[in-house]
Design a protein that fits this description.
Layout (H helix, E strand, L loop, with lengths): L3 E7 L3 H14 L7 E7 L6 H8 L6 E5 L6 H11 L4 E4 L5 E2 L3 H11 L5 E9 L14 E4 H11 L13 E4 H10 L9 H10 L3 E13 L4 H4 L1 H21 L3 H10 L7 H9 L4 H17 L9
Parallel strand pairs: 1-2, 1-4, 2-3, 6-9
Antiparallel strand pairs: 4-8, 5-9, 6-8, 7-9
Helix pairs in contact: 1-2, 5-10, 6-7, 7-9, 9-10, 9-11, 9-12, 10-12
């Protein structure tokens, strides 16, 4: 069984995919025995499969998948998490910038501390939103996963997206499968990745990296280019908080975070999104309100580490 599964889900981005697989070929050199590779296409209409078949022979333990239909970006990620055979799984975006030595850092970290529940890479944000670094720490830290997640959503709620940036997350694969199967319908929620990250961190140690290992370019984010997604994501985090309470997170922390999200309805961005997609406003408001109620009354389920 490999130590690490590196999965790249993609859809209609052949040129960017080609560049990312060139990165992977260089990065994986010397670590082939530790890794397997999953390449998963969401029924692209461009040359994606040609790119897959050109690079696949050059990668170790590779599995190429093409979904029978487009199951959505989160559905494709769900497939990758469940198909992984490694002890850990790292799902890398087809267009995210990753340092050439990031894979070596990940493998060495997991080898050195095999009891980790996960690893969070520090990253920068560029494009329509910018951050120089998401985690402002002076050195690598091994922390209690639950305490760290709760501190982010209560003390630094503007940085909660650090839990949702897919390429910065390495999960223990067994926990990722439990997480996805515990909320299978969550793949329509744009903050589903936040849920998976928090679920995997619950009850164990995670390592948070000090150095910047990747960059999230928001220029192409669906939140900025798709008005429907921009409206939906206003209500999505509150629903995630309901499920985190059920998983075992603090009700007070999750409820506090959900309440703070009301500020999204007071901004110019909300008004602009409302004008772009007026038919979605009532549903968004109702979803947010109903999940704010639920997060205060939902009965937590016992969390069992299987």
């Amino acid at each position: 069984m490999p130590l690490l599964t590196i999965a790249i889900p993609t859809y209609n981005r052949a040129a960017r995919l080609d560049a990312q697989l060139a990165w992977l070929k260089r990065a994986i050199s010397g670590h082939e025995i530790d890794c397997e590779v999953i390449l998963s296409d969401n029924r692209s209409r461009d040359e994606t499969m040609e790119v897959f078949h050109r690079w696949a022979p050059q990668l170790p333990n590779v599995h190429v998948n093409q979904n029978a239909r487009n199951i959505g970006a989160l559905g494709n990620i769900h497939y990758c998490l469940n198909a992984a055979r490694g002890d850990f799984v790292w799902v890398v975006g087809d267009d995210d910038e990753v340092r050439p030595d990031a894979l070596a850092y990940v493998v060495n970290s997991l080898r050195a501390q095999p009891d980790l529940h996960g690893l969070m890479l520090n990253f920068s944000v560029s494009g329509r939103a910018t951050f120089e670094r998401v985690f402002e720490i002076d050195e690598d830290q091994v922390v209690d996963g639950k305490e760290f997640v709760e501190s982010l959503i209560t003390e630094r709620p503007t940085r909660y997206f650090s839990l949702a940036f897919m390429t910065a997350q390495i999960y223990r694969a067994k926990l990722a499968r439990i997480a996805t199967n515990s909320w299978p319908s969550g793949t329509w929620n744009y903050d589903y990745q936040l849920y998976v990250t928090a679920y995997c961190a619950l009850g164990g140690k995670i390592k948070v990296a000090h150095e910047l290992w990747c960059n999230y370019n928001t220029e192409y984010s669906c939140y900025f280019v798709d008005p429907r997604a921009a409206m939906q994501v206003i209500a999505d985090p509150a629903e995630v908080m309901v499920h985190l309470v059920q998983a075992g997170y603090s009700r007070s922390a999750c409820a506090k975070f959900a309440r703070k999200m009301v500020r999204r309805f007071r901004t110019r961005n909300f008004l602009r999104r409302a004008m772009d997609t007026p038919s979605r406003v009532p549903g968004t408001l109702m979803r947010y309100a109903s999940n704010c109620v639920l997060v205060h009354i939902v009965k937590p389920e016992n969390f069992h580490m299987l």
